[in-house]
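Hello forum,

I keep getting stuck at the same step: I have a sequence, I want structure tokens, and every attempt I make locally crashes halfway through. Rather than fight my setup again tonight, could one of you with a working pipeline run this one for me? It's a single chain of 765 residues.
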Amino acid sequence: MDALYARVSSVCTDREGSSEDDESSQIFMGPEGDQLPLVEMGSCKPEASDQWDCVLVADLQTLKIQKHAQKQLQFLENLESNGFHFKMLKDQKKVFFGIRADSDVIDKYRTLLMNPEDSGSRDEQSFNIATTRIRIVSFVVNNKLKPGDTFEDLVKDGVFETMFLLHKGEQNLKNIWARWRNMFEPQPIDEIREYFGEKVALYFTWLGWYTYMLVPAAVVGLIVFLSGFALFDSSQISKEICSANDIFMCPLGDHSHRYLRLSEMCTFAKLTHLFDNEGTVLFAIFMALWATVFLEIWKRKRAHEVQSWKLYEWDEEEEEMALELINSPHYKLKDHRHSYLSSTIILILSLFMICLMIGMAHVLVVYRVLAGALFSSLVKQQVTTAVVVTGAVVHYIIIVIMTKVNKYVALKLCKFEESGTFSEQERKFTVKFFILQFFAHFSSLIYIAFILGRINGHPGKSTRLAGLWKLEECHLSGCMMDLFIQMAIIMGLKQTLSNCVEYLCPLLAHKWRLMWASKHGHMSKDPELKEWQRNYYMNPINTFSLFDEFMEMMIQYGFTTIFVAAFPLAPLLALFSNLVEIRLDAIKMVRLQRRLVPRKAKDIGTWLQVLETIGVLAVIANGMVIAFTSEFIPRVVYKYHYGPCRTNRTFTDDCLTNYVNHSLSVFYTKHFNDHSRMEGQENVTVCRYRDYRNEHDYNLSEQFWFILAIRLTFVILFEHFALCIKLIAAWFVPDVPQKVKNEVLQEKYDRIRHRMRFSSRSTDV
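Reply #2:
Ran it on my machine without issues. Output:
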């Protein structure tokens, strides 16, 4: 065992002579109590602490196990043979291995990715030595040995505990970016790029632009919402509902045994008109145009930023191949493969998970039905509201649980698919995870918007769950109220509770780790070791740290656009949330968690396709919400086809006069099977319900089919109109600014002219 540690400590001695007098040497107590000098491997020169890019951590107890110690030494020697420097330090519990890439490794990277004759060109200008070295070190450490004996496998076997990158030179970012008081200050994107790499910089560039573009959407949404207050008391429909003391509504569900006067719905009718009015249609069209303009201008902004970083023509696959060759000169290219059998299995499993997500919506249906029966004895007057509110909370809890399940399933599907490069794996994982997350978040909203209350039958003959419980119906004021409440609660919880958890959990975890280390005397007095320990006790990160932030924003973007017709305040809520989110993410990345691996990127990758997909879904969903969920189409049809203005051209009152009575169907209470159980049944012979059915046989009336035809026509026209606007906007706003195109063209020209001169000189020689 002693000989094993002697080999570690003698690596530098064998190269350049004795290093026992080196001031940076440390004394380590071997397993038998012998003092062994631990020095830098691969270099005998004193190294400043900020030159160590990566630190491996192992428990001291593992060094007492010869098999583990042997694997550690083998791993370090393999890295050393590839041109890495090392330094070993220890505290009472852990041993730390500082790692730094030799300059030869950086030169090899330059050689593989840059043409020799292009020295001083745009490639050289975009080259960041610090982040490149960290990226190479991280890649090689995580992919050094043969499959089955990688660093991840060594961690699982207990040979190493973890690996982390060192925070260094981040003080300026702390001062000007990662502070709550800088919430309204512009972000230092170039400094973020120099410290965290282009991928993180593009995330914050996109997030900042998204937040900026939410301002006009939030203002218009707020205006549409507030415009409803102008009709709060003056709306003809609200007036009729508030004065309808002689109209009794049929009981909703089995839990209600009381006929409610329509006038009791006065307040809810006024509230519903705040977000279900004529402005809703205009706002939905505006948001379709907004989503297109947002994406098109983002593409231009992205092109401008990437060109300023000289990465416009950078190739991700070429970068990965270069890293693989640096890691192993014998690396063999992995060909793209496609297996129809694997694809079929993945498709089947994905469909199964989607069905499970849809099943979650049915679980909510069952919950709401059972909750209605339970709350009927507790909250007699507001049973429906209580069911909707608690159902939204249950949905949020299901979302939190299913997010973890979805990530696990998506990972397993990607591993089964065995993609080649990391970028390809990331793209496929993004698609799978987002699809599962979409159904987890929006399945219940789709149910409420398009199914709730539409398959219930009619009073006296209701559809029942398992033949026992009557299915839930929409609120007496309409399904838009249910959808609005569901959206408000889920978005409110996600933007407030989730943000609090996202900030407080890392903050408390970090403080606890530091307090525990200080209390047990683990913090070293040696400045270098203390700095390593400070980084070690920060919160761990993983491959999905940035991915999770993107996914969170994509889901928020979905809520902001897909059902915005039912919740015009969604952009405003998203705006406030994003102002917090930017600083929250900055504080987490700089102050609370270990440093992310700086990665190169020239766009946001698959997320752009996700945003475009959400934009198309938003047009379809909002068109259907306006047509089938809101009262917009029935009001328009009544106004121009059934109302007094059509039959009487000189009618001076509101054209929606008598709309409420016209839109409610008639049911004779004597046809209730349990009519005798109803409260006040002796005085009520007729009750009303929201539907278009015949009075004599309760079948769907001619008016129902006419309105349905108008609804379908509206959906087709709305979607084609909105999509045409999107296409025109996309054509009108070029993806790449002409200035960027001209700069790229000029660089190509200069590069070719430079190569021509280089070739001429070579020929003359």
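Residues 10 and 228 are 80 Å apart (CA to CA). If your local run keeps crashing, start a new thread with the error log.
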